[in-house]
């Protein structure tokens, strides 16, 4: 089986672009279908990719090509016709696309699993940006296939896929293929004989293509592996980005670090640390709420109504915000359902502050951010001077990715252990929220993720994706990237493929 790589270039090349001089030529040198007295024709194919799609070019020494047809979906194969068959993404039906471009101008386009069961795809020839040139020495022709077109017919386009380059002219009894097809008679619709093909695109190249296609507002993206870091700015922005609820993930990591030192346990009660802030008419359930309940937002579902009200309208000499949190009643059974609330992690921050004797952001700078070599980081505090541990953390995307690598490496980053494997298991033991996914200790999982796949997320799609046991992390800061079925889903698919 042959292999061909579509080299990545910056811009879509024209027919006569000098870019083609550097691109490998695939010889269509299998002529086992040709007639005994058929004209001897040499044909080569080339392919490149950009963040927008694939460009394919064919070139030949054929004299006097047959050019009867010039309109979409006419029988191009009877003309002198170049063909590109590809299966961009495996599906249950085994579907693939066939692009059959005649030198007369007709482009026949179909989708299906075999020769008999195919559906014509209506199109305009201009959409595929066909260019051709024919003279006395031969001809050359190219066309462009946008990723956006492929994604209308398949889930996505894999970095590695299968396909074949072909040429035929039924009138001349000439049939040439790049990857050899074994059959008693000419037959190009044989996907079992497709060759291996690869897009020479990095993870970030493909993410960029997705952002362009769907209009995602991504500021910066980053891929981190054991071999280093690759990052890219997509939309101009400041070096650091507000990370919203990624802050909760960092708070959970800090809690785990203290737990591993024996300074706190997830089974401890909130009342063990903060009962002095309970009002006289406190809901008795608050005495039973554990720190795990707070980490998982399963404390009985206060919703933080009083806290939200007073955090926004803080007055001098106002009561401690904890008083308002604990003034809320708990309408649900403790540990029963998740009611997501910023105040839960504010409570955790105050407990951490009490344990370490300083605001959480100061402790994190000394014990987490500096050892991880953060370049820039800032963490907001409430009007009363306590660290906001439910939100408020700003950092670079490449620094945010380091938290994912700690999880991916079972608690270790660059040889230093930050969290025990026991804590990693606890934090990633997600509780099902609904049919879309689940929540652990600020670690989340969508319904389509496999056993070792997780993500950290904040409002606006600030995202870190990782797999336990696999040293690869993809992170991005955004202001809208399609939610859990948008760029996140694409990233998960890309990571599986790599």
Mean pLDDT: 93
Structural class of the helices, strands and pairings?
alpha+beta
Shape: elongated
Largest sheet: 13 strands, mixed
| Number of E-state strands | 26
Distance between the termini: 21 Å
Uncertain regions spanning at least 5 consecutive residues = none
Tell me the strand percentage band: 25-35%
Whole-angstrom Rg: 29 Å
What count of helical segments does DSSP give? 12
Amount of helix? 10-25%
Descriptive report:
This protein has 498 residues and is of the alpha+beta class. Helix content is 23%, strand content 27%. It has twelve helices and 26 strands. The strands form five sheets. Strands 1, 2, 3, 4, 5, 6, 7, 8, 9, 10, 11, 12 and 13 form a 13-stranded mixed sheet that branches. A five-stranded antiparallel sheet has the order 15-14-26-25-24, sandwiched between helices. A three-stranded antiparallel sheet has the order 16-18-17, with helices on one face. Strand 14 and strand 15 form a beta hairpin. The longest helix has 15 residues, at 246-260. The radius of gyration is 29 Å and the shape is elongated. It starts with a strand and ends with a helix. The relative contact order is 0.11. The mean pLDDT is 93.
């Amino acid at each position: 089986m042959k292999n061909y790589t579509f080299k990545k270039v910056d811009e879509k090349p024209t027919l006569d672009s000098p870019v083609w001089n550097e691109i490998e030529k695939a010889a269509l040198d299998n002529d086992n279908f040709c007639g005994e007295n058929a004209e001897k024709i040499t044909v080569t194919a080339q392919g490149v990719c950009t963040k927008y799609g694939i460009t394919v070019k064919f070139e030949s020494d054929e004299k006097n090509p047959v050019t009867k047809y010039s309109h979409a979906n006419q029988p191009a194969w009877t003309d002198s016709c170049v063909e590109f068959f590809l299966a961009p993404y495996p599906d249950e039906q085994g579907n693939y696309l066939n692009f059959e471009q005649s030198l007369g101008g007709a482009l026949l386009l179909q989708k299906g699993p075999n020769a008999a069961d195919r559906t014509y795809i209506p199109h305009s020839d201009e959409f595929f940006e066909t260019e051709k040139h024919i003279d006395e020495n031969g001809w050359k022709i190219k066309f462009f296939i946008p990723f956006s077109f492929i994604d209308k017919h398949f889930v996505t386009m894999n970095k590695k896929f299968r396909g074949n380059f072909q040429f035929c002219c039924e009138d001349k009894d000439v049939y040439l293929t790049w990857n050899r097809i074994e059959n008693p008679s000419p037959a190009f619709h044989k996907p079992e004989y497709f060759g291996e093909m690869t897009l020479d695109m990095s993870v970030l190249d493909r993410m960029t293509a997705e952002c362009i296609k769907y209009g995602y507002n991504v500021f910066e993206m980053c891929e981190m592996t054991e071999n280093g870091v690759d990052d890219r700015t997509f939309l101009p922005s400041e070096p650091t980005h507000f990370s919203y609820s990624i802050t909760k993930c960092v708070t959970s990591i800090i809690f785990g670090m203290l737990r591993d030192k024996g300074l706190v346990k997830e089974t401890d009660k909130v009342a063990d640390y903060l009962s002095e802030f309970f009002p006289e008419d406190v809901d008795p359930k608050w005495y039973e709420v554990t720190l795990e309940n707070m980490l998982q937002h399963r404390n009985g579902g206060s919703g933080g109504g009083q806290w939200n009200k007073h955090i926004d309208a803080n007055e001098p000499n106002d009561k401690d915000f904890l008083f308002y949190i604990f003034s809320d009643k708990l309408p649900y059974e403790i540990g029963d359902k998740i009611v997501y609330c910023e105040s839960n992690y504010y409570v955790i921050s105050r407990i951490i502050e009490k344990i370490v004797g300083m605001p959480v952001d100061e402790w994190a700078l000394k014990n987490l951010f500096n050892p991880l070599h953060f370049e820039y980081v800032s963490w907001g505090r409430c009007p009363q001077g306590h660290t906001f541990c439910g939100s408020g953390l700003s950092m670079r995307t490449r620094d945010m990715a380091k938290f994912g690598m700690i999880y991916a490496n079972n608690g270790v980053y660059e040889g230093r252990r930050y969290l025990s494997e026991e804590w990693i298991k606890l934090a990633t033991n997600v509780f099902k929220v609904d049919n879309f996914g689940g929540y652990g200790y600020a670690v989340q999982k969508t319904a389509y993720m496999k056993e070792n796949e997780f993500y950290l997320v904040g409002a606006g799609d600030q995202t870190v994706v990782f797999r336990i046991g696999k040293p690869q992390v993809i992170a991005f800061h955004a202001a809208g990237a399609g939610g859990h079925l948008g760029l996140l889903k694409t990233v998960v698919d890309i990571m599986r493929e790599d």
